[in-house]
Amino acid sequence: MASFVDRVVLHATGGNGGNGCASIRREKFKPLAGPDGGAGGMGGSVILRVDGQVTTLLEFHHLPHRSAPSGTQGMGDYRQGANGEDMILSVPDGTVVKDTDGNVLADLVGMGAEYVVAEGGHGGLGNNALASKARKAPGFALLGEPGSEASVVLELKTIADVALVGYPSAGKSSLIAAISAARPKIADYPFTTLVPNLGVVQAGSSRYTVADVPGLIEGASEGKGLGLEFLRHIERCAVLVHVLDCATLDPGRDPLSDLEVIEQELAAYAPDLQSDGTRVPLNERPRVVVLNKIDVPEARDLAELVRPEFEARGVKVFEVSAASHEGLKQLTYVLAEYVERARKLAPKPSMARTIIRPKAADGSEFTVQRKESGGQTYFEIRGTKPERWVRQTDFANEEAIGYLADRLAVLGVEKQLFKAGAVAGDEVRIGPEHNAVIFDWEPTLVTGAELLGGPRGTDARFAESQSNRPTRGDKRREYTERMDAKAEARAELWTEREQGIWTDPEIDADAPVDSPSKD
Ligand SMILES: Nc1nc2c(ncn2[C@@H]2O[C@H](COP(=O)(O)OP(=O)(O)OP(=O)(O)O)[C@@H](O)[C@H]2O)c(=O)[nH]1
Ligand SMILES: [Mg+2]
């Protein structure tokens, strides 16, 4: 089973925002004491955070789908819903976040560096917050927004100062084991190392990290051997060390041609764009040559023979033996100098606790476009605000729909629709094609737009719906009318029965004993 994973696809979903609450406060002697529905809680976000204890992306390999908890609903008595907790996912230092097209979204370097993959949805407002002069007691609340969804690729790029590259069995793992406390697997068959190993080297007062990566062979850039996949681990290394095997018995190989082959493969690898927009090819980094295995007499002879040829090319050469440790001390000190020089040129960014969020879209703009599909024209509205408002609307509630129309009109959506040539009955879609809310632009909406031209609180549709609701005066009038009618009827009855004893209907009609509950 895999125990080291350096590339995974993560599907993250933020928690949904809780719905707002529509509630009316009840007090003693004042049963309708105003709207008191609270807002829903915010959904939790899915956040990546660099943790020094984590060295692999294995966890995501096992659980690639993550979602943060949702916020809870608002409640009466002005109570807000609880926020969903953020889901913090620990990633190793040097994790690169990319979108599924391969564009770099974030480069997480430094303890505590964070990236929000999927944001939680906002909670909907309760009717308390929606009350205005026009809507003193809104009979609706806003829905919570769904959390955002994102699929990202996580890639681990080991961060080391020095990288060891070379053919399989050249002795890279033996070398890192000899100069650091790392204990990688060493064996005399090719491709012993399958995942990068890291070691820390102390040379005098200088301390640096070395990465040992799987062996390269000719054609690695076309996928031969283990391919070039793992070369991303040396992208962040400032200095390259070519480990050349001087004791190989392979007739077709010698240190010089080995170096050329590896250089070609390095040149074929295209590193990712850096955050500063540059791309430093691997074969342009400072490098040194290590001629290994000089404890073998033939190897020592060969090393001495080829040394001048390398030096003629201007590279520094070290003759060493990972087995007997000969020449290693000098190597580690010279590497320390290289590392110090590279560090001075490009100081490591101290990015601890950087919080990078996805770019917030500008909420003020929207577009209205005339489109056609299957011979039918429709008008498409796109924009952060209109789309959010649609998501917040409870379409089962007429008042909530009225409120949406009001908001859209104030934003100028209706006006733009007129300009774009929309007429009553045209189809209007708000949102992305696959997930749009479709309206028929009805005359009521048209008049709505005109009526809403005035200040807030002059929504004629609302006034109309209010006039449908009986006021206290209406109720009183209705009551007296009913009583009058009843009195008349009773008077007639008495007149018939008593034959004139009760001839004045007014007496009974005004009697205080009459109350609606008694009939
Ligand atoms: N005699 C001698 N043998 C060595 C020396 N360094 C490594 N070896 C041997 O070479 C073989 C390969 O060594 P590794 O360190 O596994 O080589 P590698 O470059 O890491 O190989 P891969 O991981 O397959 O790419 C082993 O059998 C080692 O014992 C050395 O300095 N002298
Ligand atoms: Mg190895």
UniProtKB/TrEMBL annotation:
Stretches for region Disordered: 453-519
Single GO biological process annotation from the record: ribosome biogenesis
Cofactor(s) in the UniProt record: Mg(2+)
Domain OBG-type G: start-end pairs: 160-340
An annotated Gene Ontology molecular function: magnesium ion binding
Residues the record lists as binding Mg(2+): 173, 193
Subcellular localization(s) per the UniProt record: Cytoplasm
InterPro entries per UniProt: G_OBG (IPR031167), GTP-bd (IPR006073), GTP-bd_Obg/CgtA (IPR014100), GTP-bd_prot_GTP1/OBG_C_sf (IPR036346), GTP1-OBG_CS (IPR006074), GTP1_OBG_dom (IPR006169), GTP1_OBG_dom_sf (IPR036726), OBG_GTPase (IPR045086)
Biological role: An essential GTPase which binds GTP, GDP and possibly (p)ppGpp with moderate affinity, with high nucleotide exchange rates and a fairly low GTP hydrolysis rate. Plays a role in control of the cell cycle, stress response, ribosome biogenesis and in those bacteria that undergo differentiation, in morphogenesis control.
Annotated protein name in UniProt: GTPase Obg
Organism of derivation: Sanguibacter inulinus
